[in-house]
Specification:
Structural class: alpha+beta
CATH superfamily: Hotdog Thioesterase
Number of helices: 2
Largest sheet: 6 strands, antiparallel
Strand order of the largest sheet: 1-2-4-5-6-3
Radius of gyration: 15 Å
Number of domains: 1
CATH class: Alpha Beta
Distance between the termini: 31 Å
């Protein structure tokens, strides 16, 4: 399926798409040493959130999709060297507003879950009004 959103995103920071389809996506991500917050290798949660957000945007797959809200749970810690994968699926679609559920897993084990409220705008969010 053709990807119509977030075409310039850095896969090293937000994950690489490995599967997309109508209303779904799967994105894989490797946690690097630069993402660690301390000497134990604990990854900063913002990188996991970024992966999940990227997966949600790909599930909606519209050039003008933006994130409006998110309710998330960090279930288990992630550390450097971990490879994690986000699966996203649209659960409600009212046209302009779409709700996307995302689960991030490490070796099949859930480490993060979230519900993302996405909005499809008439034009790019940064377009002059």
């Amino acid at each position: 399926m053709r990807i119509d959103t977030h075409e310039n995103i850095d896969f090293d920071l937000c994950g690489k798409p490995v599967a997309t389809g109508p209303g779904t996506s799967r994105v894989r991500f490797r946690i690097t040493d630069r993402m660690a917050v301390d000497e134990t290798g604990l990854a900063h949660g913002g990188f996991i959130f970024g992966l999940a957000d990227h997966a949600a945007m790909l599930a909606v797959n519209h050039p003008n999709v933006v994130l409006g809200a998110a309710e998330v749970k960090f279930l288990k810690p992630i550390k450097t060297g971990n490879i994690i994968e986000a699966e996203a699926g649209v659960v409600t679609d009212t046209g302009r507003k779409q709700t996307v559920d995302v689960t991030v897993r490490r070796d099949g084990d859930p480490v993060f879950s979230g519900r993302f409220t996405c909005f499809v705008l008439d034009s790019h969010v940064l377009a002059p009004s």
